[in-house]
Amino acid sequence: MQIYNTKSRKTEEFHTLEPGKVRMYVCGPTVYNFIHIGNARPMIFFDTVRRYLTYKGYEVNYVSNFTDVDDKIIKKAIEEGVDSSVISERYIAECKKDMEALNILPATTNPLATQEIGGMLEMIRTLIDKGYAYVAADGTVYYRTRKFAQYGKLSHKNLDDLRSGERQLKVSGQDQKEDPLDFVLWKPKKDGEPYWESPWCKGRPGWHIECSVMSRKYLGEQIDIHGGGEDLIFPHHENEIAQSEACSGKEFSNYWMHNAFLNINNHKMSKSAGNFFTVRDIMAKYDPQVLRMFMLSAHYRSPLNFSDELMEAAKSGYERIVTCVSNLDFMLEKDRPEALSEKEQELLTQVGELRRKFESVMDDDFNTADAISVIFDLVRFSNSNAEEHSSRAFLEALKKEIITLADVCGLIVERKQELQDAEIEQLIADRQQARKDKNFARADEIRNELLDKGIVLEDTREGVKWKKA
Fold it and tell me: Is 467 in a helix, a strand, or coil?
């Protein structure tokens, strides 16, 4: 397996720290609003990386955090007149709903920054003791960027060039820094902000220290893969390296992976430009699986352009796969020979070749675009070779192969089993009884269960009627 490493700017052979196990950290969202489709790209892509590593037999410890203390969260909390935890808890819950809809697997661990303050204080103390950090007069703790000799090794930025650029900036608190390039590890609280006690001042952590601490706690001092959007390369991931490696004296992550930006109709997504879309906005128009299909239709290191035309193409492609699986299900309902024929055995060798091609392109830096093309090849093969007299074993093998490869990409391609009329009537009767018993939670549960299967209930004077959505 080959992975492009941002740090080396080369494609490298993938080797894990521990045989058969992968330690993987992906920076998660800051939870102050509904996630937008730009947030969704790394979520979907790194979920697919995790799925493929699992498919290959690795045991994956996948950690992705929620940043639940941040200026934007505090600003929204002040606007609403509530505690910042109310905002973060609300949007963590909403984010998880969107992730579930996009078929993103729950992380092994989803740490929250506010629950790891003790570890942050400990790491900051260590950095101070080692001379990598210092305390300013107002209690702000800064990291001595120049003391870390390898600073810039991820972003390939030159410190002197950065220093030259900094001369033009006037930043609040800059006069307290020993060097304009030093960055914040801990900062004093402001009025109305959440804060924690520390040896230096009442305050809260800087953003960068959070991920260093959470990665170390749940994955150890060294990890295999660290991922995120390319906007995080500098300064966030560069600063993570400086913090983590100054503490441990060890290489923080062996592989750094970054997805490219998502543009809207060839322009940067922006609220002011009126082209800002949340995942909810898109799911109101499309099946969330279509959005996932779209996100995987380009190589993750290539910029991806969002447009109605490309979403319609993704929808058409997704429906082709779903229809193929549905047709196989329909054929399997009929009586047919059980065992493979000699011709079918030969045909299945071609299916095996397609599977190996799928693995080959995914082994080449997780090329999801070509992987989906292979799934389309498999769909075409199935449409051409699944016949009226095909054996059950052959049809089941085709269906299993399509579903397996689609599942690696996180695509749900098998429709839910439709309810028969008698089952619907029984569930409606159960709901009526639950309402008589004043068990309204169960009544709502049944209504939602039917809705999930495409059945809409209407309470009328004549009784409950139902129709297909």
Answer: strand
**β-pair partners for 63:** 25, 109
Q: How many CB atoms lie under 10 A from the CB of residue 395?
A: 22
With a cut of 80, say whether residue 270 has pLDDT above it. Answer: no
Protein fold of 2-259: Rossmann fold (3.40.50)
Cβ–Cβ contacts within 10 Å for residue 265, how many?
13
Indicate the helix (H) or strand (E) that contains 358: helix 342-363
Q: Say if residue 84's pLDDT is above 80.
A: yes
3-state DSSP call for residue 272? coil
Contact 258, 227 (CB under 8 A): yes
- Residue 144 phi/psi, 5° resolution? -80, 95
CA distance to 117, 333, 352, 380, 398, per residue, from 392 (Å): 58, 9, 18, 19, 10
Give residue-wise pLDDT tens across range 317-330. Answer: 999 999 999 899 98
Task: Give CA–CA dist 214/109, Å, rounded.
Answer: 10
**How far is CA 343 from each of CA 6, 281, 385, rounded to the nearest angstrom?**
47, 49, 10
Q: Are 315 and 285 in contact (CB under 8 A)?
A: no
- pLDDT at position 417 is 58
Residues 403/408/409/410 CA torsion (nearest 10 deg): 80
Q: What is the mean pLDDT of the chain?
A: 93
What is the three-state SS of 189-208?
CCCCCCCECCCCCCEEECHH
- Is residue 285 within 8 A of residue 64, CB to CB? The reply is no
Residue 289 is which amino acid?
Answer: Q
Across residues 306-317, what is the average pLDDT? 96
Q: Can you point out the beta strands (E) in 49-166? A: 59-64, 133-135, 141-143
The residues that bridge with 109 in the sheet, in sequence order, are 63
Instruction: Tell whether the model's pLDDT for residue 167 goes beyond 60.
Output: no
Site of tokens 């499309």: 286
- The arithmetic mean of pLDDT across residues 226-238, rounded, is 97
User: Amino acid letter at 88?
Assistant: S
pLDDT at 428: 87
Mapped onto helix, strand or coil, the DSSP state of residue 30 is strand
Q: Which CATH class is domain 308-408?
A: mainly alpha
Sequence letter at residue 329 = D
User: For residue 43, which of 216, 369, 291 has the smallest C-alpha distance?
Assistant: 291
Supply 201's token pair: 């001042």
Paired strand residues for 320: none
Q: Where are the beta strands (DSSP E) in 79-176?
A: 133-135, 141-143
